[in-house]
UniProtKB/TrEMBL annotation:
The keyword Transmembrane helix applies. This is Uncharacterized conserved protein, DUF305 family. It comes from Micromonospora krabiensis. InterPro entries: DUF305_CopM-like, Ferritin-like. Residues 41-91 are annotated as: Disordered. The chain crosses the membrane at residues 15-37.
Amino acid sequence: MLGGRIRAFSRQSRTIVLIEFGVLAVVAIGAVLALGWPGGGAPPAAKTDAPQSLDLPGLPDSTAPVLMPGRPGEPAASGRANEMTPAPRASHNNADIRFVTMMIPHHEQALVMARLVADRSENPQLRIIADRILAAQEPEIRTLETWLTDRGLDRTSGGNHQHTMRGMQPAEALSRLTAARGVEFDRMFVSMMTDHHQGAIDMAGEVLALGVDRTVNEMASSVVVEQGAEMNRMRQALGTAN
């Protein structure tokens, strides 16, 4: 019995020693981690496969030569792209000047016809429309003239376009309109003013396609909208909307 106790005590002693050794090993590892990796740095991270770099296209060469066309009769010139200054955008062009110089006399003829309505028409709706034409186009003429003056231009700057102004009524037609009264006048007025307005809309469409001036663009857009609406009102007033 005594021998059995001795053997049991020996096994317990070995177990205690092994446990103590394990505890010491854990403490030693913790101390190493707390104090840092040898050399003062952290343990090296696991290596990973770094992504391969992409070959992206480079920027255009700003020193590449650029060919600039010369003026009529002059040779072209070349220079580096980073040395070339973009040409300033034109504030207005010939299409703008053409529109303005044609629209002034065009509006003036519309005023001549509109002033005849008060004494010759028997249609109250047409009188209202004529008053609107007078109220709108008189200020527009002043705006058009100011546009020319501000740019050192005048009515002759666009050349003689009298024969190309669409919708303009000949002197003979104006004489017949002036001599007419009542229903006859109303029919002639609506027919002539409708052609006149359509001509203005056509000219406005031309400058909207070719012009570059912002003010002219706004005026031309207004002509398209307002005179198109007046054409419909005149037909309705005369009972010929359909």
